[in-house]
């Protein structure tokens, strides 16, 4: 049975998706370069040697430039692979990664597949989101993969969501399973919103 919160989220996701589709290629490229710079700085500040990130789709804030650069600098980058059972497998990014279309039409790596627990060793998680509010509550796209992953980790590292500036909102509708993030990275700012749960 649908709740009011689900309806609110569905309407908000539709609006955010539409807003992302209106961006021009030039706007996307500029945002991706700025995000790569900010993520590089975040990795350096945290001293992260092993991270997880996602391969951005066309409409998502770009992460591919950052992933390629991180791999070249010798950082171990795990990329998610969606599974039908709602869990995420992981593959180690390489410089010449081939990309295929995953379960939901999202780009996924083709490297050797590691199981869901591989992510437990990372120093930093960089994840997608539809929006994040100022208290650190994240709203994803409704499939729950990252909520499930973060919620099941014994020692969760800092988790940063990559979004556009207009997607940092004052307050988001939330459900019990929703997981907060440590902060967000947008083209213009890196915000610390809540403290990592160690």
TrEMBL record:
<dbReference type="GO" id="GO:0046872">
    <property type="term" value="F:metal ion binding"/>
</dbReference>
<keyword id="KW-0436">Ligase</keyword>
<dbReference type="InterPro" id="IPR024185">
    <property type="entry name" value="FTHF_cligase-like_sf"/>
</dbReference>
<keyword id="KW-0547">Nucleotide-binding</keyword>
<protein>
    <recommendedName>
        <fullName>5-formyltetrahydrofolate cyclo-ligase</fullName>
        <ecNumber>6.3.3.2</ecNumber>
    </recommendedName>
</protein>
<dbReference type="InterPro" id="IPR002698">
    <property type="entry name" value="FTHF_cligase"/>
</dbReference>
<keyword id="KW-0067">ATP-binding</keyword>
<dbReference type="InterPro" id="IPR037171">
    <property type="entry name" value="NagB/RpiA_transferase-like"/>
</dbReference>
<dbReference type="GO" id="GO:0030272">
    <property type="term" value="F:5-formyltetrahydrofolate cyclo-ligase activity"/>
</dbReference>
<comment type="similarity">
    <text>Belongs to the 5-formyltetrahydrofolate cyclo-ligase family.</text>
</comment>
<feature type="binding site">
    <location>
        <position position="55"/>
    </location>
    <ligand>
        <name>substrate</name>
    </ligand>
</feature>
<feature type="binding site">
    <location>
        <position position="60"/>
    </location>
    <ligand>
        <name>substrate</name>
    </ligand>
</feature>
<dbReference type="Pfam" id="PF01812">
    <property type="entry name" value="5-FTHF_cyc-lig"/>
</dbReference>
<dbReference type="GO" id="GO:0009396">
    <property type="term" value="P:folic acid-containing compound biosynthetic process"/>
</dbReference>
<keyword id="KW-0479">Metal-binding</keyword>
<dbReference type="GO" id="GO:0035999">
    <property type="term" value="P:tetrahydrofolate interconversion"/>
</dbReference>
<keyword id="KW-0460">Magnesium</keyword>
<feature type="binding site">
    <location>
        <begin position="9"/>
        <end position="13"/>
    </location>
    <ligand>
        <name>ATP</name>
    </ligand>
</feature>
<dbReference type="GO" id="GO:0005524">
    <property type="term" value="F:ATP binding"/>
</dbReference>
């Amino acid at each position: 049975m649908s709740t009011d919160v689900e309806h609110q989220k569905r309407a908000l996701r539709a609006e955010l998706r539409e807003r992302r589709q209106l961006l021009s290629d030039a706007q996307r490229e500029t945002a991706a370069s700025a995000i790569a710079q900010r993520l590089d700085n975040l990795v350096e500040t945290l001293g992260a040697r092993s991270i997880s990130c996602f391969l951005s789709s066309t409409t998502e804030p770009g992460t591919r430039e950052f992933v390629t650069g991180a791999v070249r600098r010798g950082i171990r980058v795990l990329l998610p692979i969606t599974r039908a059972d709602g869990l995420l497998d992981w593959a180690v990014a390489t410089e010449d990664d081939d990309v295929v279309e995953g379960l939901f039409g999202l780009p996924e790596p083709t490297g050797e597949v590691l199981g869901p627990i591989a992510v437990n060793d990372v120093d930093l998680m960089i994840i997608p989101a539809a929006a994040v509010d100022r208290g650190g509550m994240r709203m994803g796209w409704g499939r729950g993969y990252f909520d499930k992953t973060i919620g099941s980790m014994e020692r969760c590292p800092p988790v940063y969501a990559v979004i556009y500036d207009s997607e940092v909102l004052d307050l988001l509708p939330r459900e019990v399973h929703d997981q907060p993030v440590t902060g967000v990275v947008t083209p213009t700012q890196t915000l610390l919103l809540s403290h990592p749960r160690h």
